[in-house]
Specification:
Layout (H helix, E strand, L loop, with lengths): L4 E5 L6 H15 L5 E5 L5 H7 L5 E5 L16 H6 L4 E4 L2 H6 L4 H13 L3 E6 L3 H5 L3 H12 L12 E4 L13 H19 L1 H6 L1 E5 L4 H8 L6 E4 L6 H8 L2
Parallel strand pairs: 1-2, 1-8, 2-3, 3-4, 4-5, 5-6, 6-7, 7-8
Helix pairs in contact: 1-11, 5-7, 7-8, 10-11
The structure holds 1,3-dihydroxyacetonephosphate.
1,3-dihydroxyacetonephosphate (13P) binds next to strand 8.
Length: 248
């Protein structure tokens, strides 16, 4: 059985004091969750967030990292720094990183490998744009993203890998993929994992859906057989909304 993961991607929101306040409010309302609960605040909040969640069922993730350990890479953080700060997860290849910061599948591939090598749990994001969906190329795009961002990983231990299917057109737009569409694409991703990495990886990897997940649609998405959780943006900034998603 794959344990569901509900992860909140706070994006560029919540200062350190606001993050600590939100975590304090979240702790009691998510404490009985059956799902694995993760919050991903900005990098500057990570240390405080890790202490604020101490002893609870909430895990902490970063939103990005560079693939090198250390050195002359101004402005970056690395897996070594995340591990040293007791951060457990890291979102990689989010569509906003791809779109605004020009990250390619090759860049993301290096990051996923580095994260796994350092014992982090990468949440690898993939998903098609509206143009690609309307042009009927969703499955090609997904195949290219999986093959590019998971290149040279055949011999690796992928136990810690989490994938998030986030159709770009559903992010922050209020338009959720239908539960059938999300389930279909996630099933397709699992089929790719089976062909490329074998049954064990395909059966064990949690594949989440992301894109306008809210309390009102979480349950129906989570009931779909291929969907193993949610990566939540806007709705993760509201305590009650996020709690209702976590406790779907
Ligand atoms: P929204 O939930 O705000 O649509 O964002 C989804 C997302 O990008 C999570 O990573």
């Amino acid at each position: 059985m794959r344990r569901p993961v509900i992860a909140g991607n706070w994006k560029l929101n919540k200062t350190v004091s606001e993050a600590v306040e939100l975590i304090s409010a979240l702790k009691p309302v998510v404490k009985d969750a059956a799902a694995e609960v993760v919050i991903c605040p900005t990098a500057i909040c990570l240390t405080e967030a890790v202490s604020a969640v101490g002893g609870t069922n909430i895990g902490v993730g970063a939103q990005n990292m560079f693939h090198k350990d250390s050195g002359a890479f101004t402005g970056e953080i690395s897996p070594v720094f995340l591990k040293a700060a007791n951060v457990e997860y890291v979102i990689l290849g989010h569509s906003e990183r791809r779109q605004y910061f020009k990250e390619t599948d090759a860049d993301i591939n290096k990051k996923v490998i580095a994260a796994l090598n350092h014992g982090l749990k990468p949440i690898l994001c993939i998903g098609e744009t509206l143009e690609e969906r309307e042009g009927g190329t969703t499955f090609e795009v997904i195949t290219t993203q999986i093959d590019g961002s998971m290149a040279d990983m055949k011999e690796m231990n992928l136990d810690n890998l989490i994938i998030a299917y986030e159709p770009v057109w559903a992010i922050g737009t209020g338009k959720t993929a239908t539960k059938e569409d999300a389930n279909e694409v996630i099933g397709f991703i699992r089929k790719l994992l089976r062909e490329r990495f074998g049954d064990k990886v395909a059966d064990a990897t949690r594949i989440l859906y992301g894109g306008s997940v809210k309390a009102s649609n979480a349950k129906e998405l989570m009931e779909m057989p291929e969907i193993d959780g949610a990566l939540v943006g806007g709705a993760s900034l509201d305590v009650n909304e996020f709690a209702n998603i976590v406790n779907y």
